[in-house]
Structures are given as structure tokens and as C-alpha cells.
């Protein structure tokens, strides 16, 4: 896929300094630029590389003025970093702009889908499925019965969407994600044997949600497991049955959230955090990596540790904890002196 300087400048509303017909087909770091690649200069620390880079096109800020000879065509914009990010987004969409239904696939006769759909080979669409416009379902993906999917959704290869799940607009579901598997519900009898409790609820994923590879979201026992608008989930996260995550909350990899926990809006949760079931975490909460949350958390708290403490209290306590052998030794010495004086 090739783009000319003229095309790129048009997308970014920038000005060309150099050959408008210069073509690029790949991206590069400015210090590693090769002919045919596009790069950018935003950090002044890297200015030296613009004079040696062999990248064919470089995006720069409007205030950049060359002090030496350049081998690259410039595109001047208000903010090089933001413009490059915009171009990455554009390139990513263009790269994934697949349309059509590959074979073999299975599409139930009762399924309904919108325009400009991409359905990859060996994928499956069950009974009464409803899919909106501009949806892309990559190969080997599974969409179970009665699933509803909105517009502009991307479901990558190998993802599994179990029956009755609801997915909103503009969502991205990466490879290996499982939405709607049974929650972990078993009831013991008098003999100590465990019998499965039927999980008859579903999963609701609202608009603009990103779900990282290998993440699992269990269906509710009754009602719904709900992921609110704008939530961003990293890879390999476990979300149990009847959990609710508030809008615009972000969660890093390997976090586990037990059943019926309620997490508020605009929270930031680090990697490998464990959250027990049936608690409520407020809005704007920050939880440091590897923390264990076993209690309700108020709005705006920042926590660390296991069991988690207030972030400030944890840091103060840790100073003593790491010196605990010295403190214990001092206490023992004081006890000996007291005992000798007796």
C-alpha cells in the first residue's frame, strides 16, 4: 500500500517542503529511516537524525527550520506527534478495510447483518444473530445464537461470542477473547459434592469498548455482566459473572475480578490486581499493580498492597517493613537491657 506526499498532506492538512510525488509504503523510526518509509520528528532530542535519515517523508512541526541539507521530503503540521498518530489510525483502518464473505463460512438463515460486512473464512454466525454495518469478523471467530452486534465492530480471529451477548458500536475484540462463557457457579450438597448452578444471564458490552487478547468475560447467573461505554481492557483479564465495570475505566493485564463486584467510572487498575466478589469500588479510584482488594473502596482512593492500603499509608508502612529485621533486632536488644537492669 503506497501513499504520496500529496495524499498524506491532504489527510493531515499539512504543507509539503520537497517533492509532492514522493511515495512511501512503510513506517519507521527517524533514526532507522529507510527509503520508501514515513517517519516523524516531534521530540527535539531527535533533531540530529533528520539530517541523516533516509526516510522518504518526515512529518515535522510548522516551526521546524532545517540548518543542514535534507534527504527527506517534509510535511509541516501544527503538531507532528498528533498528526503521526492520526496517520497511524488512518493506515490501520485502510489496512483492515476488508469487505465480503469468504468461504467456507456458516451463516444461519435467520441471521441478519448490515452493509459492508467482512466475514472471514471458517467463521460461524448462529441463529437469530443481528449484526450492524461495517462490522469485520475475522477467520475462525464464533458468534453464537441470539447475539446482537452494533456498527463498526471488529472481532479478530479466534474470538468466541457466546449466545445472547450484546455488543455495542465501535468495539474491538481481539483474538482469543471469550465473551459469555458460564460464570463459576457451583453449589455443594451434604456429601461435599458440587453441582453446577445454571448460568442463564448474558453479557452486555456497551459502545467504544476495547478488549485485549485472551480476556474472558463470564455471563451472569441471572441478569447481565455489564461493561460500560469506553472501558479499555488489556490482555488476559478475568471478569466473573454479574460484574459491572463503569464507563471509561481502564484495567491492565492479568487482573481478576470476582463475581458481582461493582467497579465505578474512570478508574485505573494496574496489572495482576485481585478484586474479591460482592464489593463496590467507587469512581476515579486508582489501584496499583499486584494489589489485593478485599473491601469496598470510596471514590477517589489510591490503593496499593495485599490486602490493599491507602497508597500513602502503604508507602510509609513499607519503609518500616523493609527494615523489619533491624527493628526486631533493636527491640530484642532493648528487652535484654531492661531484663538485665531488673
Automatic annotation (TrEMBL):
The keyword Lipid metabolism applies. Keywords: Acyltransferase, Lipid A biosynthesis, Lipid biosynthesis, Lipid metabolism, Repeat, Transferase. One of its GO terms (molecular function) is UDP-3-O-[(3R)-3-hydroxyacyl]-glucosamine N-acyltransferase activity. Pfam families: Hexapep, Hexapep_2, LpxD. InterPro entries: Hexapep, LpxD, Trimer_LpxA-like_sf, UDP_GlcNAc_AcTrfase_non-rep. Its EC number is 2.3.1.191. Residues 22-89 form the UDP-3-O-[3-hydroxymyristoyl] glucosamine N-acyltransferase non-repeat region domain. Pathway: Bacterial outer membrane biogenesis; LPS lipid A biosynthesis. The active site is at 241 (proton acceptor). It catalyses: a UDP-3-O-[(3R)-3-hydroxyacyl]-alpha-D-glucosamine + a (3R)-hydroxyacyl-[ACP] = a UDP-2-N,3-O-bis[(3R)-3-hydroxyacyl]-alpha-D-glucosamine + holo-[ACP] + H(+). NCBIfam families: lipid_A_lpxD, PRK00892.1. Belongs to the transferase hexapeptide repeat family. LpxD subfamily. Catalyzes the N-acylation of UDP-3-O-acylglucosamine using 3-hydroxyacyl-ACP as the acyl donor. Is involved in the biosynthesis of lipid A, a phosphorylated glycolipid that anchors the lipopolysaccharide to the outer membrane of the cell. Homotrimer. This is UDP-3-O-acylglucosamine N-acyltransferase. It comes from Kordia aestuariivivens. The lineage of its organism: Bacteria, Pseudomonadati, Bacteroidota, Flavobacteriia, Flavobacteriales. The gene is lpxD.
Amino acid at each position: 500500500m503506497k501513499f504520496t506526499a500529496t495524499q498524506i498532506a491532504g489527510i493531515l492538512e499539512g504543507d509539503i517542503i520537497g517533492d509532492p510525488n514522493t511515495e512511501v509504503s512503510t513506517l519507521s523510526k527517524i533514526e532507522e529511516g529507510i527509503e520508501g518509509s514515513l517517519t516523524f520528528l516531534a521530540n527535539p532530542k531527535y533533531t540530529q537524525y533528520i539530517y541523516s535519515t533516509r526516510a522518504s517523508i518526515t512529518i515535522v512541526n510548522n516551526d521546524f527550520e532545517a540548518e543542514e541539507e535534507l534527504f527527506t521530503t517534509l510535511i509541516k503540521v501544527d503538531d507532528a506527534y498528533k498528526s503521526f498518530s492520526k496517520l497511524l489510525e488512518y493506515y490501520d483502518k485502510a489496512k483492515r478495510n476488508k469487505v465480503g464473505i469468504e468461504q467456507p463460512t456458516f451463516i444461519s438463515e435467520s441471521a441478519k447483518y448490515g452493509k459492508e460486512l467482512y466475514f472471514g473464512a471458517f467463521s460461524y454466525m448462529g441463529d437469530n444473530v443481528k449484526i450492524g454495518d461495517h462490522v469485520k469478523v475475522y477467520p475462525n471467530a464464533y458468534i453464537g445464537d441470539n447475539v446482537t452486534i452494533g456498527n463498526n465492530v471488529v472481532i479478530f480471529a479466534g474470538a468466541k461470542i457466546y449466545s445472547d451477548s450484546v455488543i455495542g458500536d465501535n468495539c474491538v475484540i481481539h483474538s482469543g477473547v471469550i465473551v459469555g462463557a458460564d460464570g463459576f457457579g457451583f453449589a455443594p450438597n451434604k456429601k461435599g459434592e458440587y453441582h453446577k448452578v445454571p448460568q442463564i444471564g448474558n453479557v452486555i458490552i456497551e459502545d467504544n469498548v476495547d478488549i485485549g487478547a485472551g480476556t474472558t468475560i463470564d455471563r451472569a447467573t441471572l441478569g447481565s455482566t455489564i461493561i460500560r461505554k469506553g472501558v479499555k481492557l488489556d490482555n488476559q483479564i478475568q471478569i466473573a459473572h454479574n460484574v459491572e465495570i463503569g464507563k471509561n475505566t481502564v484495567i491492565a493485564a492479568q487482573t481478576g475480578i470476582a463475581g458481582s463486584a461493582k467497579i465505578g467510572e474512570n478508574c485505573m487498575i494496574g496489572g495482576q490486581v485481585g478484586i474479591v466478589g460482592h464489593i463496590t469500588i467507587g469512581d476515579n479510584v486508582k489501584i496499583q499493580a499486584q494489589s489485593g482488594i478485599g473491601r469496598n473502596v470510596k471514590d477517589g482512593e489510591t490503593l496499593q498492597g495485599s490486602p490493599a492500603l491507602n497508597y500513602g499509608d502503604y508507602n510509609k508502612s513499607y519503609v518500616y517493613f523493609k527494615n523489619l529485621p533491624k527493628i526486631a533486632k533493636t527491640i530484642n536488644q532493648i528487652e535484654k537491657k531492661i531484663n538485665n537492669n531488673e
